[in-house]
Amino acid sequence: MKTNNKIKCVVKELNPLTKLVLVLSLGIGCMIYPSPFLGYAILIVTLIVSWFMGFGKKISLLILGFGGPVTGMLLFIQGLYSPKNSTVIADLGFAQVGLEGTLYALKISSTLLVFLCTFYIFMQTTKNSETVAALTHSGLNMKIGYLILASLNVVPQMQRKVKTIQEAQESRGVEVTGKFYQRIKAFLPLIGPVVLSSLTDAQERGMTLETRGFSIKGVKPTSFIEVKHSMSDQILRIISGLFIVFCILERFWK
Amino acid sequence: MFIDTLIESIDFSYRYNEAPEAALKGITLEVKKGDFVAIVGANGAGKSTLCSALAGLIPNYFIGYTEGVIKIDGKKTTECGVGELSQTVGLVFQNPFNQLSYTADTVSEELAFGLGNRGLPKEIMLEKINNVAETVQINDLLDRNPLELSGGQVQRVALAAAIILEPKVLVLDECTTQLDPIGSEQIMKTVKRLNQNGMTIIMVDHDMEKVAGLANRVIVLQDGKLVLNDSPENVFSNPKIVEYGIAAPDYYELTKDYALNSVILTEEQAIKKLEEVLADEN
Amino acid sequence: MKIEVKELTHQYPSGDIALSGINTVFEGIEPIAIIGQNGAGKTTFVKHLNGLLRPTCGEILIDGESIKNHTTAFWSRKIGYVFQNPDNQLFLESVKKEFEFGPKQQGVSKEEINERLKVVADLVGLTEKLSIHPFDLNTTEKKFCTIGSILMMNPEMIILDEPTCGQDLEGNRRLTRIITALKENNQLCITITHDMKFVVKNFDQIIVMSEGKILKKATKEVIFSSPEILQASSVSPPPITRVGQALALERSVFSQQDFHQEFENKKQAIRIFR
């Protein structure tokens, strides 16, 4: 358990941009690398790391729940009907399974899964506010940073509001379940209050921002969130870069 | 204008864009340091509009037509941005969840938001956060996600976020309306303490018992006009308040036949007076 | 109409028990107030009465039929629910259209709708504002717009969730008129509120809730004379009642008239004793 917490802490302590760079480089690297087996190797490592961090079950469910159907679908389409197919590895009667198409399908699915699983770990170990703080620290305009963060954080609140509005309109006789036609009829009574009340909310939230000095001019804003940049971040970013270079070399020099 | 006048309104009128009638008509008033001013009146009388004007949101945030002048700490509201004015006047209003910045994952971050906009370093932020958490008694909420708190808790956070900026005046626009009595009491205890420590308070409320027990001045609005501006005793004993859509606190009505030389507005005073009356029977 | 609540228990997905084994019956036309501090389960409880929430255990019968048999939209013909925040219901371009919306959903005829419109608009004080956009109304008026839109559906029972929030003096008086009119029209009114002055003025029957249970269902005299119930539910009597209790008047008082009468009685009693 102590090792689990330690690994989780190490990942949490990393600069959010480093984690984003890792996610992107692993995913892009898998896309570039000629064989799908790199992707699956990274997935296995990701799965092991996530077990230590306590997300093993969730990652496994992601791999099976998303990866299973998507891989199956891709294998069917690419394995049987890819124009690149020249080597037959199996004959199903109604069609033949080609090696090139199968490998291509496996590469796409492993790339998608690498992106998904590494991004999941990123989201679980990084607060939204930390990510935006890191981005603004690196030069992103503060107001754009606010827009990104507020948009992410307002989603759960909006979901609650939509649910309340749905209940309120059901209480006025609006059927929100059932046939397609009924659901279409319910659209305006549901979306109307969402839009109108959002305008009121936006106005009041704007008042809040103004009274907290959001638009003060001539002052460089500071952040409560410390954006750390340690030796680990430096090393990992270099490794990410080298990994991409390695994948490119493997793809284009072999 | 006296030296200790913090807010001064001189014949101020305001009409919202596209509104047929002015929401505020010729408002003249002064708010002095240490005052606890209650603004009362029927719904639609202009109370929230006046709060927005006193906080500088009118004319800088709400588009409309103004006449007259409001000065906040000597500065005209037409000549300063809301950010600058916000250093003097803090505002807490009714809906708790619309007073969050939506940028914070913890209450500490929420409280730090306004301080960050003012460019304060982290060490000072931490000190101020701890102080204000103590004042508003939200120490146990500092690590919580503000979006997962109850309405009463969020309102306390909103109050803390307003006073952490150390305004000279705090405007409270029906800030306890959506809270239960316990939540309301918690907020009012803090506000009373802040006033006792020198902060000037302007409060809009419909609860006359609450108002009478806290305010040293009551302003009554009707149809955008200031119709009364006096001590709670003089306002609540004025028979015309019924026309203005407000009623005197129950404590006044219970004791007015017995307290011929004074106006009783609080529970303690009412019980004391009535006990005296009963004792006199003995 | 009769609503029977039997062993109602509600557990949230998180595992928290919001309501625990509630048993009660709603019938008749005597208005009922439900009081208790935030988190006691008041709103969770009333949301079961029109089917917005479904019991985890137990059942609710409306005139003998299980509430599970139909959707909330179906039950809205019998049970109206006015939400606390009017912004969650209003969306049409005029007050008149808001009023007509509910009955139109029910298939009520145009003539009947027009007849109801006159009565309801007068009751909620919006006769002069029928053509106004609801979002141009002030707080009080918006509230009455939502109340009116539910009244237009002519339900047998109406639930008002915190109708006194943000109301001024005239607004509270109008609410009193509405509650009286509902009783006269044989419609049962259930109200959740924190305003004890409003409770004692308008309701003789009170349900006190705490921690997901009904602590007591009784008259206001019983509720506000019981320190144990008040303490357990964190409810405080209204100012007049508190003063009366502090002076140890013969009985609990709820209006100034009652207070003066009892106070004079006490003075008289002291004189006689002397």
Helix content of chain A: over 70%
Termini Cα gap of chain A:
44 Å
The total strand number of chain A stands at 2
**Pair with the most extensive interface?**
A-B, 35 and 44 residues
Commentary on this structure:
The complex is a heterotrimer of chains A (254), B (282) and C (274). Chain A has 254 residues and is mostly helical. Chain A has helices at 2-13, 16-32, 37-53, 56-81, 99-125, 128-137, 142-170, 180-211, 231-252; strands spanning 88-91, 96-98. In chain A, helix 7 packs across helix 8. The longest helix of chain A has 32 residues, at 180-211. The model of chain A has no long low-confidence stretch (mean pLDDT 88). In chain B, 37% of the residues lie in helices and 22% in strands. In chain B, helix 4 packs across helix 5 (122-136), helix 5 packs across helix 6 (151-163) and helix 6 (151-163) runs parallel beside helix 7 (181-196). In chain C, strands 6-7-8-3-9-10 form a six-stranded mixed sheet, sandwiched between helices. In chain C, strands 2-1-4-5 form a four-stranded antiparallel sheet, with helices on one face. In chain C, helix 3 (95-106) crosses helix 4 (110-123) and helix 3 runs parallel beside helix 5. The model of chain C has no long low-confidence stretch (mean pLDDT 94). Classes of the chains: A mainly alpha (254), B alpha/beta (282), C alpha/beta (274). Chains in contact: A-B, A-C, B-C. Chain A binds chain C through residues 161, 164-165, 167-178, 188-189, 192-193, 196-197, 200, and chain C through 47, 50, 52, 71-73, 76-77, 80-81, 83, 85, 87-92, 101-102, 105-106, 135, 149-150, 153.
